[in-house]
Amino acid sequence: MFKNDKANIVLSGFMGTGKTSVGKALADKLDMSFVDLDREIEKREGLAISDIFNQRGESFFRQIEKEVVAEYAKEQNIVISSGGVVVLDQDNIKVLKNNGLLVNVTAKPQTILQRTARTSHRPILNVPDPLAEIKKRLKER
Fold first, then answer.
1. Per-residue pLDDT tens digits of the chain, which is 141 residues long
2. Element (H, E) at 9
3. Most buried of 16, 62, 114, 120 (most Cβ within 10 A)?
C-alpha cells in the first residue's frame, strides 16, 4: 500500500467533515504525529485563516498553503489534516501522494451545517442560505 512503513496519511474533505477530530484520533491510535495544515498556516502568519483572506487575499493564502503542504509532505509517519481545497490543486495532490495515502472524509450537508453553525470564521458560509451553499460546493467537488 505504501512505499514505506513511515508513510503519511492525508485527510482531505470539506470544512466540518471531521478531518481534525478523525486525524487526532487516528494519529493517537497508530502512534503517529498529527498536523493540521490550517493551524500551521495560522501560526506562521500570526493570523486566522479568515484574516489572511481578508487582509492578504486568497492567492497569498494559496501560496503559503502550497509551501506548507510541500514541507509536511516530506515528513514521515504523520497524519495530516489538509485544508478543504488543498487537494483541488494538482501540485498538492502529487506531492502528498508521493509519501502518503490520501483519504477523503465526508459528512452529510446537514451535519456539516450543524458543525459549522457555531463558528463565525467560515466566510463562505456567511450567506443567507448556508445549507444551500454547502450542497452547491459539495456538488462542485
1. 444 567 999 999 998 999 999 999 999 999 999 999 999 999 999 999 889 988 999 899 999 999 999 999 999 999 999 987 888 899 999 999 999 999 999 999 999 999 888 776 676 777 889 999 999 988 877
2. strand 8-12
3. 16
